[in-house]
Amino acid sequence: MKKHILVVEDNPDNMDLIEAFLEDDYRLSFAVDGQEGLNKTIEEKPDLVLLDISLPKMDGTQVIQEIRKVNNISSTPVIALTAHAMLGDREMFLKQGFDEYLSKPIEDDDILIELIESLFRKGK
To answer: What does CATH list as the number for 4-121?
Structure first.
């Protein structure tokens, strides 16, 4: 059975790109704002969440804080996705509770898939 990944992304182009990269290997669901992403994480209990940082309603940092508070989803691996890649951002996002960090635009599907698979291998 394919692993389930929830993609929380408000940009349709980024959403389409991620879907094209991952749809053959994973079962995907989607959310377009932070509140919907949190709700779907609670309801669907995906194996992993790809979470944009700049989102309407709740930003990604607010969503990760809420995910980490809910017992049955608190250990769900979450990868931060952001276009605002600055020196030190990876460490900052990891301290906030994300398991990994990837800057956008995602130009190489191999990098994304390797990041996802490394978290699955770690038992995250």
So the answer is: 3.40.50.2300
